[in-house]
Amino acid sequence: MNNDEIQITWNYHNGTKHPNGIFLMKPHFYDPALRPSPYKIYKTLKGISLPLDRNPTSSTLKTISGVIGQNESDNLPDLQSLGRILYFSSGITKTISFVGLGEFEFRAASCTGALYHIEIYLVCGDIPGLEAGVYHFDPKEMKLDQLRKGDFRGVLVKATADENYVKHAPVILVYTDIFTRNSIKYGTREYRHTFWDCGTIIANTLAMCNSHHFRTKVIMGFLDNTVNSLLDLNQEKEVSIALIPIGKANPTGAKEPTKIETLNLPTEPLSNYDYDDPEIAKIHLASSLTSPEQVLSWRSKNTSIQSYKSSTNGVVLEPKISEISRETPIETVIIKRGSTRKFSRESISFQQLSTIIHYSTRGVCIDFLQKYGDSIIDMYFIVNSVENLEPGTYYFDKKRNYLELLKEGIFRNEAMHLGLDQDIPGDGSVCVFFMTNLEKILAKLENRGYRAAQIEASILGGRFYLAAYSQNVGATGLTFYDDEVTEFFSPHSKDKNTMFMIVLGKK
């Protein structure tokens, strides 16, 4: 199966559209009492405890909008800083009891259905407090389980075709997805959630790395089978999604082993739901890279396709600029953050909205974009109640920091409908739709371009979450009626596809 057989992506994307996608028509019932364990537990490994320092450091707005350049920092991660990064990415931040369902442990980043199907692994050389090895992060016990002893970073250097950030990183995080832990509720649409939930976690990771002044980059181009084998994954159940190299040191001298030994480490069941969805397996295999040449081609293409239309009918954003270093610290925001389930219909201020948009959209350092600030995502807004901003629909022109008015009017009912007939988007102050021209993306990046569009949209969505809570604004991600969103914003959004949706408003 080849990466260029893009009809496979179209079949998946169209088949998982609400309301009538063919893959959503299968009978399906989810009983919350059958919620699978949200933790991967190794039965025989002795863990290394991670220190936990929850003290606040940098402001949220600075950490989500900044990027550490090639020569800006000599900071190197140690065990303590890794503990902070992992905790504030995917650690347990609160426990809530629900009648009839018991206690739920909620994590640092939002996740569809609170099913927490994304795992994090760590590959490192010797660093202060931690010997070289391959580790799995256990958020339940706040520890690292060592899968392999020794420096295996050379495997990832080869898997990414000598990607510069990976080559110089003392630590590389690898994010994986356990499909059935989420498909138990959402069926075939789970593969969209793979990137939605991974992206919101990565938004936290990047912010925390910025707070420590560590250089980072999101790596989506790699040899899937090589990375999966290094992590000893059962690839029918769990697969690698993204890599993040952290820090800058001398190029790794670690040599790739001649053979990656299969470990078959025993774990508790990855899910109590054993049905493996063939459509998820098909699109993941079709979007996998199998040769170094494919990896090199992946990151050599200029994929920035964000479109801008000239118009003077709109308003320039007015974000907070001065004293943002005194804004709410990133750690405080992550701990208090949650998915808002009810909005009051009160207005947020134009400055609050401007600040959220401005600092969330500065750019993502990611391997399929040629430079920081490029993007393959366009953003459309339904504004219900924002002070000093006319209700209506808008398009965000990033080049001019400008909201272009598309149509004036009250669209609360339409927002409710587009958000899968839920009250939340009608009650919220603003609905944000992250869209892309999928046809152009697939033409340039083939099937793996679907992963690219989904991950960038969800990282941006994760930043909207963080920026909103820093401004005392609630936020929640929602699903949507795909084609009706495109139709609603047309003709401006003609030929665009929705990747992610978030609602902002007063709690």
Description of the structure:
By secondary structure, this protein is of the alpha+beta class. The protein has two domains: 7-298, NADH Oxidase (3-Layer(aba) Sandwich); 314-505, 3-Layer(aba) Sandwich (NADH Oxidase), CATH 3.40.109.10. The protein contains 17 helices and 15 strands. The strands form three sheets. It has a seven-stranded antiparallel beta sheet, with helices on both faces. Strands 1-6-5-4-7-8 form a six-stranded antiparallel beta sheet. Strands 2-3 form a two-stranded antiparallel sheet. The radius of gyration is 21 Å and the shape is globular. It starts with 6 loop residues before the first helix and ends with a strand.
Q: Structural class, please?
A: alpha+beta
CATH architecture call of the largest domain: 3-Layer(aba) Sandwich
Mean pLDDT across all residues, rounded? 92
What's the main sheet like? 7 strands, antiparallel
Query: Could you say what the CATH topology of the largest domain is called?
Result: NADH Oxidase
Percent range for β-strand residues: 15-25%
Shape: globular
User: Helical residue percent?
Assistant: 25-40%
Number of helical segments? 17
CATH homologous superfamily annotation of the largest domain: NADH Oxidase
Strand order of the largest sheet: 9-12-11-10-13-15-14
* Poorly predicted tracts of residues: none
Q: First CA to last CA: what distance?
A: 48 Å
Number of separate structural domains:
2
Number of strands: 15
**Radius of gyration, whole Å:** 21 Å
CATH top level class name of the largest domain? Alpha Beta
